Amino acid sequence: MFSIYGVTGQVFSGTLEQMNRVRALSNARTARALADGGDELGIEAISGISGRSQDDAVRAYLSMLPPDLERGPLIHASQIMQNQVVTVFANDAVSLAWRTLRDKGIHQAPVLDERAQLIGIVSERDLLTAIDIDGDQIIESMRRHVRDVMKTPVVAAHPITDIRRIASVMLENRVDGVPIVSDSRRLVGFVSRGDVLRAVVTDPPLSLWR
Predict the structure, then answer these.
(1) pTM score, two decimals?
(2) Ranges of each domain in the chain
(3) 34 neighbors 40 (Cβ within 8 angstroms)
(4) CA-based torsion, 92, 190, 1, 184: positive or negative
(5) For 5, 174, 175, 192, which has the most beta carbons within 10 A of its beta carbon?
(6) In the chain, beta strands by DSSP E
(7) pLDDT for 60-103, tens place per residue?
(8) What is the CATH architecture of 2-202?
């Protein structure tokens, strides 16, 4: 199960096939991608799933899983995701966010609003559009905020989502990671390209088939 979060909240929830019908997703690059009335641009009115229908869909998906999943190969995001997620806030200064990523040794981070809800993702490359650095020192800053350079909307996945489908989303949307969000829309993890590659290298039971 996948969902899409923007500055107005969750704008889509459903399967990978449904999400792929959102034609303009790859063109949504920054928080400026908002309609005058506050609606997300690039999100078509397709058959989203929410509330009780979403719960029913998750239960139906879980009922199809192998009974010995715990002892089987790596299949789901929850098995490889990072549980301790470094985040930044939309109102943080770009310089502060860049220092956070540098100090934590990461290249991207989910972006939260003032209610700690997922609204976007920002990478080191995004931040460098607003600052100039020399080594580890910021030598010039345009005094912009994370919300000005982040990518939104952002694709997120449920913890019980096939790793292969998450990898497909990374490739098709040219992103380096996917936030993992619970049924209550709380950020609970993050799967990066590195996590997927690490699973392939270190865990032979990973099931790779088409």
Answers:
(1) 0.72
(2) 2-202
(3) yes
(4) negative
(5) 5
(6) 2-6, 9-14, 88-89, 108-112, 118-123, 131-134, 137-141, 154-157, 177-181, 187-192
(7) 655 655 554 444 567 899 999 999 999 999 999 999 999 999 99
(8) Roll (3.10)
Three-class secondary structure of residue 6 per DSSP:
strand
Structural tokens at position 46: 């397709």
Tokens in use for 95?
Answer: 């310089």
Element (H, E) at 122: strand 118-123
Q: Is the dihedral of CA 106, 170, 45, 17 positive or negative?
A: negative
* Cα 130 from Cα 120, distance rounded (Å): 17
Q: How far is residue 184's CA from residue 189's CA, in Å, rounded to a whole number?
A: 13
Q: DSSP state, 21?
A: T
Closest-CA residue to 178 (of 106, 110, 127) = 110
Convert the pLDDT of each residue in 143-179 to its tens digit. 899 999 999 999 999 999 999 899 999 998 888 899 9
With contact defined as beta carbons under 8 Å apart, do 153 and 13 qualify? no
Residue pair 175/122 in contact (Cβ under 8 Å)? The answer is: no
- CA geometry: angle 136, 189, 207, nearest 5 deg: 110
Q: Which residues pair with 185 in a beta bridge?
A: none
